[in-house]
Every structure is written in structure tokens, then in C-alpha cells.
Amino acid sequence: KVRLDRRAVEPRAAASTMPHFRVTYQVSAPDEKGARDIVDALCLEQTVELPESLVPPGTWINEHVVGKCESLRRCAKQPQFEGKDEKDIRWEAVVRYADDTSGGELPQLLNVIFGNTSIKENVKVEDLELSPTLMGKFLGPRFGTKGLRELLGVPKGPMLMTALKPMGTSVAKLAEMAYAFAKGGIDIIKDDHGLANQRYAPYEERVRACAAAVRRANAETGRKCVYAPCLNAPAHLVVQRARFAKAAGAGAVLMIPGITGLDTMRHLAEDPDFGLPIVCHPAILGAMLGGGSQHECRGFSHKVLLGVLPRLAGADSTIFPSFGGRFGFSEQECVDIAKGCTQTLGSMPPIVPTPGGGMTLEKIKKMTQVYTEDVMLLIGGSLIGHSPDLVANARHFLGIAGRTDTYGPLENRHHPASSYPSTAAAPTVVHHAPAHHESNEEVAKLQKRCVQMEKNVAMLTEMYLKEEKARKELEKKAAAGGHHHHAKDDHHADGGHGHHKPGTTLPPGVAAPATPVEGNYSKVFNRPKDGSWTWERIPQEMYKQDGGSFKGCSRFELLGKRGESTVFHVRYFEVEPGGWTTLEHHRHEHAVIGLRGKGEIQLGPHVYPVHVGDAAYTAPGDTHQLRNHGDEPFGFICVVAADRDRPVEVDPKEFLKSMSLKHALQHGMKESLEAQAKHRASMGGDAEPSACEWKPGMKKKKAEAAKAVESGSACEWVPGKKH
User: Fold this and answer.
1) Which residue among the candidates 43, 230, 280, 638 is catalytic per the annotation?
2) Is 638 a catalytic residue?
């Protein structure tokens, strides 16, 4: 291997230590000089789009904005094919870009990665490595492989997908097919990507009918199969149709980012009002691919385009043509795509590689050998054409894929789960783990959850009793002072002076009437005179409902949730000794001010102390957490936007692993995260959402969405808009 040093001068420390991401390019050139010229031009083209003479080495823009080639070497493995040009020698270049060039946004990130250079010859994007800071700007998949398995009720073995087709089929026939596939046990029944809003199967009519058909099949079998309509729509209708699909009962959606855009998919994946799995379809993306059967040096590698980028943009499953099908992908290219779906990518969960593209039932055995168990097998035409009985075809698909759940839970009374219909082959893989072992594990988890729920009930009871006691004390005070008016009436009728005459001076100790609790009125909430960290008329609440992501936390919603017109919410959180909040990240920012005791805040890879009066700011996308290692409660004020996205929980075990690879860990950080991981595992995983994840108007929006399903049209439907 021949390594080439950078021609530009080494940047000053300030530039070299800035957060940056790396892109690995493959270039085709006859010699080292030719490769170097291509890469040097690329570093300028992808950033400033000016000749180096106008931004020479040593200038601020050159050092902080222009891409820097970290290495250039001849590829150890050169392509070999008939008719290969002797001058086509492949070189691998690693180029570093400052995070700031991306603006922290996906469209600009893609622009910096390949923008204008994609129009040139002899360059291909081979790989991509983002900094932790930049990774934190993107929430990624909402479900991932683990979440999809839980949603579909498939704890092991390959998941299965099929498509409703062909274009031109009536709504009634498509719904009939959807019912049969769900009845037979296909996990995801998606629209063919060619189904949009054509007159023979209009979108909203099709979605209603197919979603209802899958629900009916699930009710009969006890399965969790889902229908995924295709969101191939004009830009202004994509999100509207997605929300319509959810309201109509769809369990997932199919998106085509090559047509509607990767960032549109990201936007929907991060929308807290949506919350369904997203399946990515590769249509049109083929025009951006490099390599393949032609061995061309252009476009993106299969791994980046069909694995890494869909995952970064929030897809939970990515469809791609498998080797041996009608599209010509090699086995290695497909393995690379699967690697892009599962390799470490910050704290983002792995997603499900979904090979398809003209695959037949006869090729399933080979596919399961190559892709292993964490895969979703997509069979379309071959499944439809296997026999006229689509239910039997689906069960046959389950059998040859090695699945043992040929019949659903509600069907097992008549058909043992281990039996298969006469048309199906016996599974090639049978799991022999004793059933009682899994049952005992589930019982243990349920017992732990019950214990936690009992603690939660006790906490809620204590909160209620405290609130009732405070309310009765206030009533006694009001009665003793002779004030019988409603606080709201006093507030507006006599300026808070009760029965005293206007213009007179009140005696010392006579307090103004209590301000209203609800409504957009000026108000004050006092702490009690005993000095306790509570607020009169404001109930203490649980931090979240359940789960193992936190320990020993409670909160008071002080301002913003009771009718005030603020664009922010003010909350008081308290963490017991030895407790911690959820390790998470989100798109909104928040500010924290220490009020009681002392604690610490995790901001990305670093930990900082927080004492009384200290202020901390969490930037959008940064992974964060507050902990209490002291011997007294740690209390703090948290100010956050009223309209905000839902936080995404970060697995402390994976976070620790990621940070350990790139940073020296501060004292105590490793032990804290390990304790959290152990606690999280014992409690059975993630926490339920809480008011920390609340957005105003959600109940109203959901009601309007449901109403729109009955009377509106998803083609032009907007929540809250009357037609």
C-alpha cells in the first residue's frame, strides 16, 4: 500500500480539535499523482468551491472549512472484469470535514459528502464516519430491529414481508389479499411501491380497507401483523397521508426517499405525533449507486446508500435487491448493506436488512444462511403465484423460513404451533429451548414490574394525601380570614383587597388573595413555610410511569401546563441519593439550574458538577443525564420549550461502549453507567412516556385525525382543517 501525506500545511490545534466527520472515497486514476489531484480538487469542491489560490493554506477558511485529506492509499483489492482499462487503478482516500460545514442538518450533510463531486467521473463514496456530536443531531430509527420484533411479536427467527400487487388491482381485491397474508402469518404486508393514489385504488379508500382487513385477521389469529401503505405522494401531502394512515389503523408505512427525500423520512421518523415503523424502499436510489455488475467508480457504495443513510434518516427496515434476483447485486454487496444496517452507529439501534427484488421461495434457504436471523425476508410475486390459496402460501413461507409459529395464538387450540399444513415443508431450524424456561423468565419480569407498579401506586397515594392536606389547610386559612370568594373573582373584582375600601392601606400580615391555578392569569405559587421543597397548590408528580431508565426521581410542573401562554415550561425535578434521570437525547434544548443539594450532569462524553445556583445548558441532540451521588436530595429547575419532540432513550451499556472507544472516562462515569445498565435490565427496559415528553393539543389532534378517517380525504387532509 502506498500512503500519501497531505500537501496542505497541518492546521493549528484549534482547527484539528474541532468536531469533524470523515468520508472514505474510492477514486479511479492511473497513478498516485492523478489520484492526488482528484482528491485535492474534491476537498475544495465539496466545501468552498473555489481554487486553492483564493483560500490558501494558513487562512482561517482553509483551516476550518476546506476538507482535509488524511490519507490516500492504493486499494489492496483491485476490480477484475473483462474489458478493464489498465489505467483504472483504484485508490482509497479518507477526507475529514468540520461538523460545522454540515450545519447539523441532513440535507447539507449529504451536500458536503458528495454534492457537486457526484456529477464528476471516477469518484465513489465508500464509507462514512460521523462524530458523536454530529450523530447526536439525528435521532435515527424509532424502533430498529429490537423494536420491530417486539411490535410484530417475533422474538426470534427471520421476520417476513410481502407486497400487495399488481398496480391496477381494485381496493376490494387488495384488501382480500391483505387479509389472506395476515391470516397466514406474514408480519408486514406492504403496498407495492407502485401503489399511490390511482383511480383504481385511491389512497384513503385502500388504506381504510387494507388496515381493517389485517385487523380482522389478527383478531382471528392473535397475531400482530401490520399493514404498511406506500407514501409515494407530492411533498405537501407526505406527512398528511402518514398521519391519515396511522389514524386509519396502519401499523407501519413504506417510504421512497429516492423520490420524496431522505430528510422527509427523517422528519416523519422524528415526529412524536406519528410513531410508526418506517420501511425504506430503494426505487430511484439505483441511479446513485456505484459498483455493481459494471464495476464503475461512481455514486455511493451499497453499504452507505442502502444501509447507513436510511438508518441515519430514521428507517427501521431497508429494502434492497438480494443477490440471485433480477437486479444483479453481488452477494458481497448485499452483505455490505446488511453491515451498514447493523454496525455501531453512535447510540442508534440496528435496523432490519430486508432483501427482496424478484426473490423466490426456493431461494429462502440460501438467504437465511447469508443474512442470518436478524433479517426480514421479502417475497412478492413468487408468494402470490405459489398457489391460489394465499393463506396456505403464507404458512408455507413461514415454514421454509424456519419459523415455528405457523398458526397464531388463537388458532393453536385447533392447530399445535409445531404442526404445518400439508403444503408446507418442515422448518430447517427448530428451537428446542424448553418452554417453561422462557415462561419463568417472563413471569420474573412481570413480578418485577408489579413490584415497581406497587411502588408507583404508593408514591401516587402519598402525593395525593399531601395535596389533600395542603388543600384543607388552605381552606382553613381562607375560612379564618373571612374570604369566601373564588380566587379568580377576587383577582378581577377588587384587585385582591377583599372587603377593604379602595385607597386604604391594609394592615401588616394581610395577604393578597391566592392567584388562580388554571388559566392564563398572572399567578404566584409559594413554597410552604416549613421550608420543604414543595409548592402550595401544585401536586408532586412521578418522573415517568414505569421502566428501568431512571431511579428515584419526581417532579413538579410549576409553570406552562395550566393555561399559561408561555412558549416554555418550568419544572422542578428532584433526584434521591443514588438516583438518576433517563439517559436520553432530543431535538430541543433545555436549561437546568441547581436549587438544592448537589449532583452532576452528563453532557455527551463529559460529566460536570451541578451545585446550588449553577446553570447548565443542553444543546439539541446532545446525550445527557443528571445524577445524584450525594447523601441528600438533588433538586433543580429545568426550563424547556412548550412545543417539543419526544426524547429518545439511550442504552447506558451501548453509550458506555461508544464513549470508551473514543474518550478517556472521568472518574465514576463507568461505574454509574454500569449500575444503570444493570438496573435497566432488571426492570425490563425502557420507561413509559411522561409529561416530560408532552406536547399541547395531542388529544384534540388525535380525535380530529380519527374523525378525518371517517369523513375526510388523506389526499388533502390537514388536522384541524374543515373541508
Assistant:
1) 638
2) yes
